[in-house]
């Protein structure tokens, strides 16, 4: 079973919930955990996991100028829509998208596209909460979706080797490439939101993506009681999105985040922890 925790926007408490689910289910359900937010990975911080870099992911290309052939005509500068070519010409590597327009327009065949690493995969293979897979995108590099795809490939390989029975993925927020890669091939998705108008609009977007892929989805409302807004509940009922939990707004959650510990560990008797534990019981029944 492969479950993805997703949200349409950042700050809903998705990673906070995921860390508590891993804490509660890792041992019994033999979880392989994946932090699929390669641009801002922080799930390992809430679990106290030390990560080791195991490989770089080469999924990007940038322009490289052969100055032995270059005649300094700057035609490449004129044709770069990303402004990654400066007068000279000089490649601004952090802006280069590897589109190849400069190479195609160069009359002297002085430009090639070289492969460069987009980021790195980091793994914890021993100790509590292992196997745990994370990734880190290098600044200015595109193709984060390919990095997440590689994370999930490794997780599934570990699953085939018997190093776990289930995969739990903490997706990036939004509906971008990382999220698409996180959802691809998954069995179920849990959508985390909060009771605000802005969150409703973002919930609609992520729900439409999950529906497109035909993945059964379930709703968790976090920070319940923070406002009187009931739009999330109405959307859930109108669209057949089953609500499996409603976590109350809690200062204990904020304290747990500040000390970098799952709230179910640091404040197990809090209302938020009790509700998260109930959600974990529901998810446990889904898992192998």
Supply database-style keywords.
Rossmann fold; Alpha-Beta Plaits; 288 residues; 38% helix; alpha/beta
Can you tell me about this structure?
The chain has helices spanning about 15-30, 45, 75-80, 100-105, 145-160, 175-185, 195-210, 230-240, 250-260, 265, 270-285; strands spanning about 1-5, 30-35, 50-65, 85, 90, 110-125, 130-135, 165-175, 190-195, 215-225, 240-250. With about 290 residues, the protein is α/β, with parallel strands linked by helices. Helix 7 links the parallel strand 9 (about 190-195) and strand 10. The protein starts with a strand and ends with a helix.
> How much of the polypeptide forms β-strand, as a percent range?
25-35%
**Portion of residues within helices:** 25-40%
Question: Low-confidence runs (pLDDT<50, min 5 residues)?
Answer: none
CATH-level-2 architecture of the largest domain: 3-Layer(aba) Sandwich
Taken from the alpha-carbon principal axes, the silhouette is: elongated
Distance between the termini: 7 Å
- Major beta sheet summary: 9 strands, mixed
Assigned CATH superfamily of the largest domain: P-loop containing nucleotide triphosphate hydrolases
Number of helices: 11
Which structural category fits the helices and strands?
Answer: alpha/beta
Query: How is the largest sheet built, in terms of strand order?
Result: 3-6-7-2-8-1-9-10-11
Rg, please? 22 Å
Question: H/E element string?
Answer: EHEHEHEEHEEHEHEHEHEHHH
CATH class of the largest domain: Alpha Beta
Topology, number of strands:
11
* Domains (count): 2
CATH fold naming of the largest domain: Rossmann fold
């Amino acid at each position: 079973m492969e479950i993805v925790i997703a949200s349409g926007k950042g700050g809903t408490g998705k990673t906070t919930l995921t860390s508590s689910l891993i804490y509660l289910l890792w041992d019994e359900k033999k979880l392989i955990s994946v932090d699929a937010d390669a641009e801002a990975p922080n799930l390992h911080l809430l679990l106290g996991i030390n990560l080791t870099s195991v490989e770089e992911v080469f999924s990007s290309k940038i322009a490289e100028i052969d100055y032995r052939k270059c005649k300094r005509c700057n035609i490449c500068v004129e044709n770069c829509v990303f402004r990654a070519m400066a007068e000279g010409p000089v490649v601004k590597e952090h802006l280069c998208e590897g589109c190849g327009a400069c190479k195609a327009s160069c009359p002297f065949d002085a430009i090639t596209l070289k492969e460069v690493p987009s980021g790195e995969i980091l793994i914890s293979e021993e100790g509590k909460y292992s196997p745990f897979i994370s990734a880190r995108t290098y600044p200015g590099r595109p193709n984060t979706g390919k990095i997440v795809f590689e994370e999930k490939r490794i997780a599934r390989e570990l699953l085939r080797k018997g190093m776990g029975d289930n995969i739990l993925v903490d997706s990036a927020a939004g509906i971008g490439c990382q999220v698409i890669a996180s959802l691809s091939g998954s069995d179920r998705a849990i959508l985390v939101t909060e009771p605000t108008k802005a969150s409703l609009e973002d919930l609609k977007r992520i729900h439409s993506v999950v529906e497109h892929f035909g993945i059964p989805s379930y709703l968790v409302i976090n920070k319940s009681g923070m406002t009187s807004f009931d739009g999330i509940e109405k959307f859930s009922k109108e669209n057949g999105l089953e609500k499996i939990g409603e976590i109350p707004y809690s200062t204990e959650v904020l304290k747990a985040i500040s000390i970098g510990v799952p709230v179910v560990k640091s404040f197990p008797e809090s209302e938020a922890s009790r509700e998260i534990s109930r959600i974990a019981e529901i998810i446990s029944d889904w898992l192998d």
